[in-house]
């Protein structure tokens, strides 16, 4: 019988990619914050395709349903377009976290964010109100879920510390920066 205090950690599988892994289970807010302007542009364009396509089809081959029939179809087409646009937006951003596409900007943003948290003494991936066991369950269920988001929309909403990266690099960088700041203060005195 296992002890209640025993930690259950399942290490994430490491995927071979051309770019560095930033996070194998990024929180949804990080994915949105790290999105590039091009992600917004592509998502907006993709979101507009569905209602525009329905409008063009109505102009080319009218359905003759009148104003009462066309409006609900346009609302549905708009909602479908917005959902599709968000899917494209999320997919483009999360693929950079996984290291599947070029991510040098996001690597720098991640390093800056995490080093600043280390300097402030904050937890790297936020605090959670759920138990460590449930954090592990959440991590195992949503790790690399962005790969299957087109079939099952599953996002990480739980703060936990199981992200598949060695966090020592953040602490080492923070130590170097603090040392450089200390030397600069001593040199200016």
Describe the structure.
- Residues 111-182 form the NADH-ubiquinone oxidoreductase 21kDa subunit C-terminal fungi domain.
- InterPro entries: NADH-Q_oxidrdct_subunit (IPR053229), NADH-UbQ_OxRdtase_su21_C_fun (IPR024549), NADH-UbQ_OxRdtase_su21_N (IPR019721).
- This protein is mainly alpha-helical and 189 residues long.
- The protein has six helices and no strands.
- It has helices spanning 28-33, 37-60, 67-98, 104-120, 132-142, 168-188.
- Helix 4 crosses helix 6.
- The longest helix is centred in the middle third of the chain and has 32 residues, at 67-98.
- Residues 1-5 have low confidence and may be disordered.
Quickly count the helices.
6
- Specify the structural class: mainly alpha
- Percentage of β-strand residues: under 5%
H/E element order: HHHHHH
Mean pLDDT: 90
Helix content: 55-70%
Q: Tell me the number of strands.
A: 0
